[in-house]
Amino acid sequence: MSTDRENNSLSAKVIYDLTTFTHVDYPDHLSCIVWFSGCNMRCDYCYNKDIVFAKDGKYSYDDILDFLKTRVGLLEAVVLSGGEATSHELLPFCREIKKLGFKIKLDTNGTNFSTIKELLDANLLDYVALDYKAPKDKFT
Ligand code: SF4
Fold it and tell me: Separation of 135 CA from ligand 1 center, angstroms?
């Protein structure tokens, strides 16, 4: 059963945008991409700055879950991207996605270790794409 905190958090509009279909973001899986607003880093080379500096988004978690209910049997997986998805509450959202039968891929900069561990410990992630970040001088 969901707690009040989880129900409240699922109505927060923290999702910048939704890509309703992709066959390239999760290898061998038809997916959608959930783009979370905001990021805890400010990489010079970021190509998603509009998302990184967004305070909120177009959609709530509930909006995405309503969309996913219409895609059961059509899509196989949900990609959580951004921005940095782990800057937001993911546990209750991922539990609801799993209840609908989707796999979950997380795109992350890997800095929120405890959130990622929590999701892995709860067996909620099927794929983690870890994108290492560093200042420019470290790449030379
Ligand atoms: S971690 Fe990713 S989304 Fe965040 S600023 Fe860096 S490149 Fe952009």
Answer: 12
